[in-house]
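Duplicate of #3305? Posting structure anyway:
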């Protein structure tokens, strides 16, 4: 059996961005407010929201949020590809 895999990131996004975009990326996704975790009905992975912070670059200020993906059976590249379709910003 393959052990669960966890990947942690700090993103320039707000919690409101996640509540708006996660249901678009994953239409049947649920949210557990107690654990601040998004859970798909089929299982296999989850995304937990962590600490909120701030990033300052000269006069630009951005909100950041820590996120932790936990994979337990889902195909990591497939989940990330779908996630990035909705969360990637910028021109790249």
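Output from current build:
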């Amino acid at each position: 059996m393959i052990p669960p895999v966890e990947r942690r990131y700090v993103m320039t996004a707000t919690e409101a961005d996640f509540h708006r975009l996660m249901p678009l990326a994953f239409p049947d996704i649920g949210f557990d407010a107690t654990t601040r975790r998004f859970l798909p009905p089929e299982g296999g992975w989850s995304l937990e929201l962590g600490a909120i912070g701030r990033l300052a670059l000269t006069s630009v200020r951005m909100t950041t949020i820590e996120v932790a993906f936990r994979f337990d059976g889902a195909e990591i590249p497939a989940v990330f590809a779908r996630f990035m379709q909705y969360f990637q910003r910028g021109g790249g």
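Confirmed duplicate; merging threads. The chain has a mean pLDDT of 91. The radius of gyration is 14 Å.
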